[in-house]
Specification:
Blueprint (H helix, E strand, L loop, with lengths): L2 H9 L9 E8 L4 E8 L16 E2 L4 H14 L20 E7 L2 E6 L6 H6 L11 H11 L4 H4 L4 H4 L17 H11 L6 H10 L17 H4 L6 E3 L5 E3 L18 E2 L1 H12 L8 H7 L9 H8 L5 H4 L7 E3 L4 E3 L12 E6 L3 E6 L4 E6 L2 E2 L4 H19 L5
Helix pairs in contact: 1-14, 2-7, 2-8
Keywords: Hydrolase
Family: Belongs to the class-A beta-lactamase family.
Organism: Aspergillus avenaceus
Length: about 400
């Protein structure tokens, strides 16, 4: 038993779980599964069943990778350019304003002079955020909630829920936010209004050879698929696990390209395998290469803002030095190695609020996926387990003779 095996058994102990269930998978450039560990249970109930290979997982922001690929397919098809303004497709982006101050219900704005592009959406440099990632957007949200008619008028439609001002001129900063939710709208509108989920079935899941039931949005509307879902839990400050019946990203009214997908581990790993394949089916090789190209100017305000929100990516990147961090087209990019966990340079990674983690390393032709269903994201318990998993994999990988 390895150190990680022992830690995994300890953390998923039925009598006192720290993490109730975990799936870890790694795949190589030939599509071979080269690492697979499943431990724990599908819920915290006394009669919980051992976690199964085909358990359905809510991805949270790991959805962003799939939506990013869909948007890049639009670039590959010549429907849009990576650096072309998106206002023809998204008239909502015309005449965007930059929020500069909030005092009670009074807000101050400046006009934006730069058009948002696909590259901005893919790199979180659009100026769009979430209320929980920027203080001005938080204050704006609080002021809006103070309106007596707020609840009555609130909409979960992406084009309404994520209509918000910018907080900086596109291309001049970095902020984690709703950019990929808007990317999903772009994909839909460029394909005659097809739903994002239906687009993914035809252009991602079927291309990879998957069979129904396919990954889906609005899982609550798919009872048979939902019945296979792993229970979500919340880790309390005392370390106790309690049921989480609803995630902040649950949305039964629309399909959010930033957070709404549910799928199995095998479904997601199929996407990762294609990104390291020498004959990819989803994107052109040059497009994939661009995904792994640093997109932020070193020592720029964008880099400083990325580093300032380390809580958003620390768990997926590992204990990497700040001078070795950038951003690719679909995730945080570790440009240097992370000796503490044996991780090599040029690893692209991201994850989701339910403590999903994915990473891709094209240099070595391998990719990995870690999943549980626990909040809050990036808590120390899960982070330690993720780092132990990576260390275990990279140690094994380095000891394999691939001559």
């Amino acid at each position: 038993m390895t150190e990680f095996d022992a830690l995994l058994a300890e953390y998923t102990d039925r009598g006192n779980p720290k993490v109730h269930g975990v799936i870890c998978k790694c795949v190589d450039k030939n599509g071979n599964e080269i690492y697979n560990k499943i431990a724990g249970y599908d819920s915290i109930s006394p009669d919980a069943s051992p976690l199964r290979e085909d358990v359905v997982l809510k991805l949270g922001s790991a959805t962003k990778l799939i939506t990013s690929i869909a948007l890049l397919q639009c670039v590959d098809e010549g429907l849009i350019g990576l650096d072309d303004p998106l206002t023809d497709v998204l008239p909502e982006f015309e005449s965007k304003s930059i929020l500069t101050d909030v005092s009670g219900s009074n807000m101050t704005f400046e006009n934006s002079e730069v058009s948002i592009t696909a590259r901005h959406l893919l790199t979180h440099t659009s100026g769009l955020g979430y209320p929980f990632t920027h203080p001005l957007l938080r204050l704006r949200a609080e002021a809006r909630r103070a309106d007596p008619n707020y609840s009555q008028n609130y909409s979960y439609r992406v084009t309404e829920r994520y209509t918000m001002p910018l907080v900086f001129e596109p291309g001049t900063g970095w902020l984690y936010g709703c950019s990929l939710d808007w990317a999903g709208v772009v994909v839909s509108r460029l394909h005659d209004g097809i739903s994002l989920g239906d687009y993914m079935v035809e252009n991602i899941w079927k291309r990879l050879g998957l069979l129904a039931p396919f990954p889906c949005f609005n899982i609550a509307l798919h009872p048979e698929y939902n019945a296979r879902a792993m229970q979500g839990v919340t880790r309390t400050p005392s370390g106790r696990l309690e049921p989480c019946d609803r995630w902040a990203f649950d949305n039964n009214e629309d399909q959010e390209g930033g957070s709404g997908l549910s799928c199995t581990a095998q479904d997601f790993v199929a996407v990762l395998a294609d990104l390291v394949s020498e004959t990819p089916k989803l994107l052109k090789p040059a497009t994939i290469a661009e995904m792994f190209t640093p997109q932020l100017v070193p020592n720029s305000p964008s880099i400083k803002m990325l580093l300032g929100l380390r809580v958003a990516w620390d768990t997926v990147a590992g204990p990497v030095s700040e001078d070795r961090i950038n951003h690719g087209l679909c995730g945080v990019l570790c440009t240097g190695s992370v000796p503490e966990i044996g991780q090599p340079k040029n690893v692209l990674a991201w994850g989701g609020a339910s403590n999903i983690v994915w990473w891709v390393n094209r240099d070595n032709g391998v990719a990995g996926f870690f999943a549980t269903q626990q909040a809050p994201f990036g808590n120390p318990t899960v982070t330690s387990l993720v780092n132990a998993w990576k260390r275990d994999f990279w140690t094994r990988f380095g000891n394999v003779d691939r001559a």
